Amino acid sequence: MDNDETAESELCENCDYIINCANENIFIITKGDDDKVWCQSCFEDLWKEAMKDGWAGDDIEEKMKELKKKAKKKAKKQKQK
Ligand SMILES: [Zn+2]
Known about the structure:
By secondary structure, the chain is an alpha+beta fold. Helix content is about 50%, strand content about 20%. The radius of gyration is 16 Å and the shape is elongated.
């Protein structure tokens, strides 16, 4: 009955944490034919370094968008001062 468990959980390749896909986000990054699965905290810590290293993925693109938005907001604030 518990055979489905493996399909619903992924091992974080950085910290060996078992991610429960039903409750938690998993982050998948790719570089050529390689890919890595990371838990949220590893991704938050390491995505920038990974990107510099040539890794890519939807999750990294999302982060870049977020950063650009934040940078724009900051620029506006500084102008108002
Ligand atoms: Zn991790």
